[in-house]
Amino acid sequence: MAETKPKKKTLKKRLNRWLFLNVGPYFLYLVSQFVGRTSKWVVVDAEKQLAVLHSGSPWICAFWHSRALLSPFIFKIEGGKRVLVMVSRSEDGIFTAKALKLFGIEAAFGSSTRGGKEALADMKVKHKSENIALAITPDGPLGPAEIVKPGVVALAKETGLAIYALGYYAKKVTRIKSWDRFVLVHPFNTIVGVAGNAIYVPAAAGLEQMEQIRQSVQAEMLRVQEISENWFGPQSKESQLPWFISRVSPWTGKPVWTRPNGERIYPEQKYQV
């Protein structure tokens, strides 16, 4: 029986793929910049974490896959630390890597389903040789949504870096009907950004302890998410947690921080950047 040759993609499909991989990343970058620069940011319980970021010290940032739109914007606006992000070995991963490059952010290709060990090894080597910060979506690339997988804990154990959860939400959002219910934030908005507490993994941690730490990371990420999503509702923790306002200049991209009482904060002095 003669082998059937694979069907060639139609011109329309090839054109759509080209547009997706070559125009799409620029569109995503511009959308992220436009949303981030036209919105007011409420930064919650994050001064210790920002001190680490602005000092140049590396860390591991963990954020849900559904919060990928504005996380690169946050990395570059608040401190500009060099960051290496794990992305999947797929067309979506190529798309993401190209978008990240526009922010000046590097990519390591791998995921929980393919090439994850190699990507974690690359991230470890890159961190040790270049002191680069690391970021990962611990529920990516295909879910289950908002369930932390072990990779982020293994990375923290190998590097000795602290894991910080990052979360955000906004007054006006659209949740896309995808597996992760991706959060599409509208421009001219009020966005709440929350940073979690540092979580370390001992170098000698065994499987049982690593699972306990994975559960701690899971709990911290859900705590951060709960604060950001409920900030504008009756369960808001506005009166319980410290926060300040950050407005990003539409022209320079630099943030201006003010406390709720109007007092100006100067990060370049506060954190000796």
Rough outline: globular
Q: How large is the count of helical segments?
A: 9
Residues in helices, as a percent range: 25-40%
Largest sheet: 10 strands, mixed
DSSP strand (E) fraction? Answer: 15-25%
What is the element string, with H for helices and E for strands? HHEHEHEHEHEHEEEEHEEEH
Task: Give the oligomeric state of the chains in this entry, treating copies of one chain as homo and distinct chains as hetero.
Answer: single chain
Q: Over all CA atoms, what is the radius of gyration?
A: 19 Å
Mean pLDDT level: 89
Describe this structure in words.
38% of the residues are buried. The protein has a ten-stranded mixed beta sheet with strand order 4-3-5-2-6-9-1-10-11-12, with helices on both faces. The chain has one domain. α2 crosses α5 and α6 packs parallel to α7. It is 39% helix and 19% strand. By secondary structure, it is α/β, with parallel strands linked by helices.
Please name the defining characteristics of this protein.
alpha/beta
Topology:
Elements: H1 11-22, H2 24-38, E1 40-44, H3 47-55, E2 60-62, H4 71-77, E3 83-87, H5 91-102, E4 106-109, H6 116-130, E5 133-136, H7 151-159, E6 163-170, E7 173-175, E8 183-185, E9 190-195, H8 207-229, E10 243-248, E11 255-258, E12 264-265, H9 267-270
Parallel strand pairs: 1-9, 2-5, 2-6, 3-4, 3-5
Antiparallel strand pairs: 1-10, 6-9, 7-8, 10-11, 11-12
Helix pairs in contact: 2-5, 6-7
Question: What's a quick, concise take on this entry?
Answer:
With 273 residues, this protein is an alpha/beta fold.
